[in-house]
Amino acid sequence: MHPEAVARLQCDQCGRLCASQVMLSVHKRKGHVPESERPVGCDQCERRFICKSDLKEHLIQAHIKNRPYPCRFGCGATYRIMNLEAAVAMRRSMALP
Asked: Which of 3, 7, 18, 82 could make a disulfide contact with 23, Cβ separation 3.0–4.6 Å?
């Protein structure tokens, strides 16, 4: 399907645009359900999630801090994601005040 032919559905709570009704439903379920109503809780902090896969991602990123990808330039930095450009941009954005 051509990108311009994709229907853009807008979230009535935040204005985010989604390409399908399914994606809009997922967005609303994950983004607008209060944390107190989310059934899956992290045992290492107070965060709560809609599904186990979101908890798994949170554990890896927030608590395990697995960084398996070394910098290809040999500077000693390691990254969670393979794409160096995205990792460097993310690292720089976190370092800025």
From this structure: 18
CATH of the domain spanning 36-66, picked from 3.90.1720, 3.30.1370, 3.30.160, 3.30.230:
3.30.160
Q: How many residues does the chain have?
A: 97
How far is the C-alpha of 14 from the C-alpha of 66, rounded, in Å? 32
Amino acid type, 43: D
Q: Does the predicted TM-score (pTM) go above 0.85?
A: no
Q: CA distances (Å), 32 to each of 16, 20, 56, 59, 77, in order?
A: 12, 17, 20, 21, 36
Between CA 14 and CA 32 the distance in angstroms is 9
